[in-house]
Amino acid sequence: MQQKYKIRKDDNVEIIAGKDKGKRGTIVRVFEKNGKGRVIVSGCNIVKKAMKRRSQQDAGGIAEIEAPLDISNVAIVCKKCGATRIAYKLDGDKKVRVCRKCGEKL
Q1: Any idea of the CA torsion for 11, 16, 21, 26, to the nearest 10 degrees?
Q2: Mean pLDDT in each 10-residue stretch from start to end of the chain (106 residues)?
Q3: Rounded to an integer, what distance in angstroms lies between the CA atom of residue 25 and that of residue 42?
Q4: pTM here?
Q5: Which residues have C-beta within 8 Å of that of residue 83, sequence separation ≥ 6?
Q6: Closest Cα to residue 61, out of 73, 70, 53, 72?
Q7: Phi, psi of 82 (to 5 degrees)
Q8: Which of 9, 13, 38, 7 is nearest to 25 (CA)?
Q9: 87: which strand partners?
Q10: How far apart are CA 48 and CA 42, in angstroms?
């Protein structure tokens, strides 16, 4: 069974644990497989990876890529409050994500 996470693609997040603690970026991709939530944040958690040459144009060698982070190590950023958690409110028939601190829509 897949787990539903409150963080989605293109959300602005701040890293709250790990080597890049305090950095901010946007979510590029969310991995939900096997209940292990992981996200890729743009410009954060850069690692070096050995890449094999695939063709004449494609250069091999050591490349720097963004590695996945655990979803628990990132927090969504509110425009007013900064890093915060997410709550849900009903707006008519729609369920809307809001900031836990100030109640503003995210």
Answers
A1: 0
A2: 82 94 94 84 94 85 93 93 93 92 89
A3: 5
A4: 0.83
A5: 14, 16, 75, 76, 77
A6: 53
A7: 95, -145
A8: 13
A9: 98
A10: 15
Q: Which two tokens stand for residue 85?
A: 């958690």
Q: Which residues pair with 75 in a beta bridge?
A: 14
SS (H, E, C) the chain: CCCCCCCCCCCEEEECCCCCCCCEEEEEEEECHHHCCEEEECCCCEEEEEECCCCCCCCCEEEEEECCEEHHHEEEEECCCEEECEEEEEECCEEEEEECCCCCEC
The CA-based angle 46-51-11, given to 5 degrees, is 35
Tokens of 19: 């080597």
